[in-house]
Structure to design on (557 residues):
């Protein structure tokens, strides 16, 4: 399964005597799930591959996100690679929803098993990538001052990799311990007896609050937007079940690939109002009891029918009221003003129960906004809350942040920042007009955050590999989509987005969490299976939506 050991470490790539750059076939930026699979796939095709990763090892968000309670919100058997039957059989998950340490252990197991690290330079950021039109290649520069030349450039930077601090004045003044969820220390952090503040109540903040609340002397949760969260109902996986899964991985994966979410979560074709009120209530109770994202799949129209959506939202608000003993706190925790599931769905083990603890205090920042962060804590309009520790769980510059964090210069000196000044645009979320041989995995105009990111990553890398094979077999040096194809794809993405309630909440999906970022839902909302069909059609149509250039022997460098 693994290629013959060839020493392809960066120092052994051939130097271009004219430019001083190291010459490779493929540069891969990022070493999360997408970057790891890209590195493996292109190496197995016989390409010279050089990967770059800002972190100290493989893993992407799971390398950085070591905060208390960090855990995947998809079933572990689903949130794992499918390209290697051997790895599927050799690895055994211990829990239905794996915690960060087990996820990272799995990621390291895969990297070791496939001998990937020798192709990746860690603790290295790509600072610039420039298209050389004359030589038909990308010149890539790193923060170490090294330069590489590559025929193909793969941006496996992921939709969530540039953390974002809250836009609150005074952050640098805080004299206590400041912790960021997305860059958590690698050594244990103790909270016993400490006055701890958490800003951010999305999926990460929820995971942190329910863990820190057990240990902190006092925990103050600064809630700016309440989130809907549902019970995870995590459980240990019994050996008989694991054996069943391993016998049936092939059909499980096939079901996932042919689903709208790229995963095994049950999905119904049942419209909300097609069943009686008594039946609806029973179905919702069952979903709540079963846990996970079961509720999202219970009815087919929850992100299309506002009235159906509000019924489900009210059901969850009722559960909050039943769980939280103090009615004033319960009311403040109930989200209103946006559709349920329009923000990222959250799962918890004891979030609402945490607010029944006498040491946990909810600070409602809608009624009492944060004014600034001081030397001693957080100041709201009502006064100052003194803290020993402050945790930011305030998310990411999602979807486009990582790709705009460094200079990408395409044909005719046109930058990606210029191309995306009014929002991300591409063809299929995979390629952009004006940027030949530059590919993205889980790009912002694909299903990205709306489906299983590992299924998307594998699909995207396989599509890119097929395009490269087509080029190699036909003597082609460059590929890029036509402007017309790109515009047609963006028209489709926009048209689909207008049918969904996802546009009705201020979230990172639409860029609302970043100041001055163009607003709009640039995700493909037609589902993973439809996305796969569009991508397959582009190939089956003979790549007619793409422009190719033939290899010119005189310029082949």
């Amino acid at each position: 399964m693994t290629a013959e050991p060839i020493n392809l470490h960066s120092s052994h790539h051939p130097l271009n005597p004219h430019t001083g750059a190291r010459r490779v076939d493929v540069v891969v930026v990022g070493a999360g799930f997408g970057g790891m699979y890209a590195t493996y796939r292109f190496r197995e095709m016989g390409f010279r591959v050089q990967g770059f990763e800002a972190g100290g090892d493989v893993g992407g968000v799971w390398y950085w996100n070591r905060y208390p309670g960090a855990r995947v919100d998809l079933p572990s058997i689903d949130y794992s690679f499918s390209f290697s039957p051997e790895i599927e059989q050799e690895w055994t998950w211990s829990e239905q929803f794996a915690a960060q340490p087990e996820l990272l252990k799995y990621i390291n197991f895969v990297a070791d098993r496939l001998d990937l690290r020798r192709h990746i330079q860690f603790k290295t950021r790509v600072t610039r990538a420039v298209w050389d039109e004359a030589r038909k290649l990308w010149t890539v520069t790193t923060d170490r001052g090294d330069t590489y030349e590559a025929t193909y450039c793969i941006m496996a930077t992921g939709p969530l990799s540039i953390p974002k601090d809250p836009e609150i004045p005074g952050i640098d003044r805080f004299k206590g311990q400041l912790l960021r969820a997305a860059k958590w220390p690698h050594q244990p952090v103790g909270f016993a007896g400490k006055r701890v503040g958490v800003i951010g109540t999305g999926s990460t903040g929820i995971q942190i609050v329910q863990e820190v609340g057990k240990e902190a002397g006092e925990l103050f949760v600064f809630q700016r937007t309440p989130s809907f969260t549902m019970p995870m109902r995590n459980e240990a996986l019994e050996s008989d079940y694991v054996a069943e899964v391993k016998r049936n991985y092939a059909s499980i994966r096939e079901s996932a690939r042919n689903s709208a979410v790229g995963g095994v979560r049950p999905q119904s074709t049942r419209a909300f109002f097609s069943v009686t009120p008594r039946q609806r209530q029973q179905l919702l109770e069952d979903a709540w009891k079963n846990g996970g994202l079961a509720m999202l799949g219970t009815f087919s129209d929850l992100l299309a029918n506002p009235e159906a959506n509000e019924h489900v939202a009210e059901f969850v608000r009722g559960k909050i009221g039943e769980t939280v003993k103090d009615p004033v706190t319960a009311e403040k925790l109930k989200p209103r003003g946006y559709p349920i599931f329009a923000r990222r769905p959250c799962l918890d083990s004891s979030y609402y129960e945490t607010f029944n603890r006498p040491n946990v205090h909810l600070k409602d920042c809608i009624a009492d906004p944060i004014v600034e962060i001081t030397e001693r804590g957080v100041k709201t309009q009502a006064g100052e809350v003194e803290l020993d520790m402050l945790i930011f769980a305030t998310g990411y510059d999602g979807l486009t942040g990582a790709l705009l964090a460094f200079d990408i210069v395409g044909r005719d000196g046109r930058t990606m920042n210029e191309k995306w000044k009014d929002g991300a645009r591409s063809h299929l979320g995979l390629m952009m007009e004006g940027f030949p041989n530059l590919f993205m995995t889980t790009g912002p105009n694909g299903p990205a955050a709306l489906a299983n990111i590992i299924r998307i990553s594998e699909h995207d890398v396989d599509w890119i590999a097929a395009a490269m094979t087509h080029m190699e077999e036909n003597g082609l040096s460059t590929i890029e989509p036509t402007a017309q194809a790109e515009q047609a794809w963006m028209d489709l993405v926009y048209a689909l987005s207008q049918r969904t309630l996802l546009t009705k909440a201020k979230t990172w999906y639409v860029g609302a969490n970043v100041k001055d970022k163009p607003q709009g839902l640039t995700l493909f909302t037609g589902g993973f299976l439809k996305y796969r069909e569009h991508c397959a059609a582009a190939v089956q149509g003979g790549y007619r939506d793409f422009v190719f250039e033939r290899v010119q022997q005189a310029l082949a460098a």
Remarks:
- The first strand starts at residue 22 and ends at 29.
